[in-house]
């Protein structure tokens, strides 16, 4: 039985009843109390009344007072707390309210529902503490939408960059009598989808084939644009003149005029498939790697030419010879300048790996040809532990092998599917499929 002494004791603990009511009603947090199994509203402060836009709430069943909440599981959650005696909390709860004479609007809440109990321990009602987090939720949602739109714009821009990069590189490699050619290209930064490395394989009118790898300083779209200009110019000069020195002098002159082309490096090799004679020039690039059939690999002597746009533009050449089934590997320095590898050690490592791959002693692929294995497996095996930080180009891997007979046909194609699957499914360390710009074999 409740007595005046109980009221006095309570007042001494929590304060004067009138003051407590006033403080309760002025609280910014929404507080309400539900009584009885029919869930009648027994207490509601001004924050709650302001939210729902109604003043006459006391004594109404929750379901009747908020008919607009039907189907939103609000009443059902209160029923659950009353039936189970277990508290319930929700964060970021989305609901819709429709005040008297107003329009339906969306709200977000964090709330805690706690059962109240009588002296016998039975549930007598529910206390609800609700925080209106609509403003913050809308800001979060708007930020997510902005981020999604930005991501979409980035993806669209990246698609354009990817298309640009693919258009700037050869769409295929030539099929020629007595020679096989393969090529691969791996970008250091998959997010930019663009880089400054390039390769080319050029069928000359006299039957020789030109093999090219080059590297423009930097990464990204600007490097790709410069790379595209240099590649096209060198390709045209090789076809027109058939002479390495003349072609590189033209490229050297262009490098002094084209922004971003200064200090670009290039290695050019002209291979006669009939005689096996190869003439080459290393303009600031590491020398080609010769893989004799059945023997250890050896690097050809560098010619000593400087990078493009540097010095007087002297591009002397050297010569060597490939026997039948020998291979010549041109590469960019990304395959050497890998993390945790010094240049000398990486140079030896490349030669050893290429020798084993060519002899099919690495990852056995009985149905593949040596040039394809060297092109794909060298990327996988040499980067799987160290990773890579610079673009890598092989044939650009430019590998060539004498002794293979094909009809005099020039094929063009966009990333042959079979070859692309071989590399993309081979576990190249750190390489996403989008990073592999070219994998070709003819």
Structure description:
The chain is elongated and about 110 Å long. With 442 residues, it is of the alpha+beta class. Strand 10 and strand 11 (277-283) form a beta hairpin. It has eleven helices and 18 strands. It is 34% helix and 27% strand. It has two domains: 4-132, Beta-Lactamase (2-Layer Sandwich), CATH 3.30.450; 170-441, PPM-type phosphatase domain (Phosphatase 2c, domain 1, 4-Layer Sandwich), CATH 3.60.40.10. GO terms for molecular function: phosphatase activity. Keywords: Coiled coil, Hydrolase. Residues 140-167 form a coiled coil. Residues 91-145 form the PAC domain.
Structure keywords:
elongated, alpha+beta, Phosphatase 2c, domain 1, 2 domains, disordered C terminus, 18 strands, Beta-Lactamase
How many distinct domains? 2
Briefly note the CATH topology name of the largest domain: Phosphatase 2c, domain 1
Biggest beta-sheet profile: 6 strands, antiparallel
Class of the largest domain in CATH? Alpha Beta
CATH architecture of the largest domain: 4-Layer Sandwich
Overall pLDDT metric: 78
Bulk shape: elongated
Q: Give the topology string: H per helix, E per strand.
A: HHEEHHHEEEHEEEEHHEEEEEEHHEEHE
In which range does the helix fraction lie?
A: 25-40%
Radius of gyration: 37 Å
Unreliably modeled segments? 395-400, 404-442
CATH superfamily of the largest domain: PPM-type phosphatase domain
Number of DSSP helical runs = 11
Structural class: alpha+beta
Give the strand tally: 18
Proportion of strand residues: 25-35%
Order of strands side by side in the largest beta sheet?
A: 13-12-15-16-7-18
């Amino acid at each position: 039985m409740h007595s005046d002494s109980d009221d006095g004791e309570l007042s001494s603990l929590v304060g004067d009843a009138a003051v407590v009511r006033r403080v309760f009603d002025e609280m910014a947090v929404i507080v309400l109390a539900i009584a009885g199994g029919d869930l009648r509203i027994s207490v509601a402060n001004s924050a709650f009344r302001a939210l729902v836009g109604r003043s006459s709430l006391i004594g109404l069943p929750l379901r009747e007072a908020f008919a607009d909440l039907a189907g939103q599981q609000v009443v059902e959650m209160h029923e659950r707390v009353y039936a189970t005696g277990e508290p319930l909390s929700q964060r970021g709860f989305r609901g819709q309210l429709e005040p008297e004479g107003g329009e339906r609007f969306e709200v977000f809440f964090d709330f805690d529902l706690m059962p109240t109990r009588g002296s016998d321990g039975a549930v007598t009602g529910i206390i609800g503490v609700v925080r209106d987090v609509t403003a913050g939720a809308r800001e979060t949602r708007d930020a997510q939408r902005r981020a999604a739109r930005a991501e979409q714009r980035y993806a669209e821009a990246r698609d354009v960059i990817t298309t640009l990069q693919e258009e700037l590189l050869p769409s295929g490699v030539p099929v020629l009598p007595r020679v096989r050619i393969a090529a691969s290209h791996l970008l250091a930064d998959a997010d930019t989808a663009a880089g400054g490395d390039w390769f080319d394989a050029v069928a000359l009118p006299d039957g020789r084939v030109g093999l090219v790898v080059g590297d423009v300083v930097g990464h990204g779209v600007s490097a790709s644009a410069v790379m595209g200009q240099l590649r096209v110019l060198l390709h045209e000069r090789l076809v027109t003149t058939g002479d390495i020195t003349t072609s590189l002098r033209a490229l050297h002159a262009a490098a002094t005029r084209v922004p971003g082309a200064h200090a670009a490096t290039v290695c050019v090799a002209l291979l006669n498939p009939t005689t096996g004679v190869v003439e080459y020039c290393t303009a600031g690039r590491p020398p080609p790697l010769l893989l004799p059939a059945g023997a250890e690999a050896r690097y050809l002597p560098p010619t000593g030419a400087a990078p493009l746009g540097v010095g007087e533009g002297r591009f002397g050449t050297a010569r060597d010879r490939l026997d039948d089934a020998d291979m010549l590997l041109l590469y960019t320095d990304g395959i050497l300048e890998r993390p945790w590898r010094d240049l000398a050690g990486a140079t030896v490592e490349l030669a050893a790996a290429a020798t084993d791959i060519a002899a099919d002693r690495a990852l056995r692929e009985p149905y593949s040809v040596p040039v394809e294995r060297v092109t794909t497996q060298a990327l996988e095996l040499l980067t799987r532990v160290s990773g890579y930080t610079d673009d890598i180009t092989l044939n650009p891997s430019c590998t060539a092998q004498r002794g293979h007979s094909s009809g005099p046909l020039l094929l063009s194609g966009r990333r042959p599917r079979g070859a692309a699957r071989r590399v993309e499914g081979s576990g190249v360390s750190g390489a996403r499929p989008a990073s592999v710009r070219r994998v070709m074999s003819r």
